[in-house]
């Protein structure tokens, strides 16, 4: 039994991951902007808030040796009209948030000689996505960071992998559908998805459950797409 922190654990994919890791027998704390039962409230872009949340979790549940970075913020804006503040906020949440959270848990993992980090990136980093240049840039950087950290932290017993989800039925996806930002309804895209269904948060949680397990110890620096075959 390990102690796991799941950022973005109050909603959608992060919530499913938190529930799955708890069902797997781990002590789990969500870290999110919103309050969750057994979790901590923090903005991942604020290093002091992240450090304070991690300290509270550590006191309650012990050293943190599993981190899943699922907090994320999407954005849809034609690049020519994208202002720098919006660009920066999306980079801040999706990329710098990962920086702050990994920095905060690294001492625990290093001391334990064991750690598992999973970064939830995005299939849009594989395929590109119009009007999401800031988001795609941030998520692509997360994939790169994953590979670099895997090489650097492997000798310390820490694996680092990324799961880029594609088309998962969460509040984020449905908000984008409501605003007609998906280039068609969810049902329209399902018809064009090889496995002919929308992804479920539990699909991502299952991949995370495996990647943080003991038996996944020889897997690091990998980008494991979970997207129903939309990106191969
Ligand atoms: P979601 O339902 O909107 O969940 C994201 C969670 O992250 C929310 O609880 C949100 O809080 C939280 N969050 C946002 N900014 C934060 C911050 N600065 N600090 C702490 N928490 C913050 O979205 P989701 O679809 O589950 O997405 C989870 C992850 O998967 C994200 O990284 C997303 O980019 C990625 N992803 C999703 C899909 C998909 O198809 N759904 C596809 C590709 C990638 P609030 O609700 O209070 O803002």
From TrEMBL:
The name this protein goes by in its record: NAD(P)-dependent dehydrogenase (Short-subunit alcohol dehydrogenase family)
A biological process term (GO) from this entry: monocarboxylic acid metabolic process
Any one GO MF annotation of this record: oxidoreductase activity
Protein species of origin: Actinophytocola oryzae
Ketoreductase domain location: 2-166
Pfam annotation, one family: adh_short_C2
Keywords: Oxidoreductase
Annotated family: Belongs to the short-chain dehydrogenases/reductases (SDR) family.
């Amino acid at each position: 039994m390990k102690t796991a922190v799941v950022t973005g654990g109050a909603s959608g994919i992060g919530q499913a991951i938190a529930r799955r890791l708890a069902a797997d027998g781990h002590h789990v704390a969500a870290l999110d902007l919103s309050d969750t039962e057994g979790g901590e409230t923090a903005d991942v872009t604020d290093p002091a808030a992240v450090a304070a949340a991690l300290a509270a979790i550590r006191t309650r549940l012990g050293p943190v040796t599993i981190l899943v970075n699922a907090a994320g913020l999407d954005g849809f804006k034609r690049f020519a009209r994208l202002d720098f503040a919006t660009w920066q906020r999306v980079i801040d949440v999706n990329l710098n948030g990962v920086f702050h959270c990994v920095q905060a848990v690294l001492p625990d993992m290093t001391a334990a000689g064991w750690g598992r980090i999973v970064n939830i990136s995005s299939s849009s980093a594989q395929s590109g996505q119009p009007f999401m240049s800031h988001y795609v840039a941030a998520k692509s950087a997360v994939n790169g960071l994953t590979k670099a950290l895997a090489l650097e932290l492997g000798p310390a017993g820490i694996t680092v992998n990324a799961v880029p989800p594609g088309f998962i039925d969460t509040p984020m996806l449905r908000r984008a559908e409501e605003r007609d930002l998906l280039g068609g309804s969810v049902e329209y895209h399902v018809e064009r998805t090889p496995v002919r269904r929308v992804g479920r948060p539990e699909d991502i949680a299952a991949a995370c459950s495996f990647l943080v397990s003991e038996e996944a110890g020889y897997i690091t620096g990998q980008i494991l797409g979970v997207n129903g075959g939309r990106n191969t």
